Design the sequence.
């Protein structure tokens, strides 16, 4: 929604000539909806900045939120939305910060408006609605970004790579193994192999509730990638139910070593490295 040059001029004049009244009433109205979750000083500063951006845009002539000269106004609205989203405010609480300006303008028009009061209020309200929608869209984009970042962080936390012994690392998997998580598992395992120079990696699937063809393919791809890095992989956590499922599905792990538990897998690796044999010979001596 765009304002005409005359409407834009009257809007700029209202917001410029009654700065204190606009800021005070706008702050009070928004603060009531936020229930003290944002300090009056911070809220007042945000609304003053938004008021000034509206005035600056209106002084250019026709107010059109999509126009190039409205870039500053869009930037202020976007920053307001991003800040509220990061602080945990709801979309409604964020949008009210913009929509509350309607009530303030109505009071001003009733007190200082002329013959065009009703027409101006309708035009100003339409502009504020457009600003509110822009704020809501910016808020949603920010929230989606935050959720995506948090999901990625949780994904990384759910796929730790731990060092069990010198030259031995393990990936204890818990929960469903989908394509996205499998990619994270592979990347973290390969990076750990590079960082530690470990020749052995144990992939423990004790916490994986079920193994189907897709899960098996993800595991096999991870093993192949690790082998390309010069590391041997052992799969542990093969419970009886999982073993039956693997056989029923015709899944073949080929020459990949599999063990019933993580402890069995670690003992297997220690035998391969000669650690267990060395300890026995010391006890015999």
Sequence:
């Amino acid at each position: 929604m765009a304002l005409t040059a005359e409407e834009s001029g009257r809007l700029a004049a209202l917001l410029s000539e009654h700065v204190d009244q606009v800021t005070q009433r706008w702050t009070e109205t928004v603060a009531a909806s936020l229930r003290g979750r944002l300090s009056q000083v911070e809220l007042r500063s945000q609304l003053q900045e938004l008021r000034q951006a509206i005035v600056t845009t209106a002084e250019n002539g026709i107010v059109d939120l999509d126009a190039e000269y409205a870039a500053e106004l869009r930037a202020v609205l976007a920053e307001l939305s991003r800040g509220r989203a990061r602080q945990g405010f709801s979309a409604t609480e964020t949008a009210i910060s913009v929509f509350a300006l309607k009530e303030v303008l109505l009071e001003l028009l009733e007190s200082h408006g002329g013959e065009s009061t009703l027409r101006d209020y309708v035009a100003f309200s339409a502009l504020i609605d457009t600003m509110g929608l822009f704020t809501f869209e910016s808020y949603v984009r920010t929230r989606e970004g935050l959720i995506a970042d948090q999901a990625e962080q949780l994904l990384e936390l759910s796929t730790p790579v731990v060092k069990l012994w010198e030259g031995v690392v393990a990936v204890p998997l818990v929960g469903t193994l989908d394509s996205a998580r499998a990619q994270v598992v592979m990347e973290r395992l390969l990076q750990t192999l590079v960082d530690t120079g470990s020749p052995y990696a144990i992939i423990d699937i004790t916490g994986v509730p079920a193994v189907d063809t897709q899960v098996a393919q993800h595991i096999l791809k991870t093993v192949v990638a690790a082998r390309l890095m010069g590391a041997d992989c052992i799969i542990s956590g093969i419970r009886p139910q999982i073993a039956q499922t693997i056989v029923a599905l015709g899944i073949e792990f080929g020459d990949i070593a599999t063990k019933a538990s993580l402890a069995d897998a670690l003992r297997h690796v220690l035998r391969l490295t000669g650690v267990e044999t060395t300890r026995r010979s010391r006890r015999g001596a």
Summary: The longest strand covers residues 200-207. The CA atoms of residues 31 and 40 lie 7 Å apart.
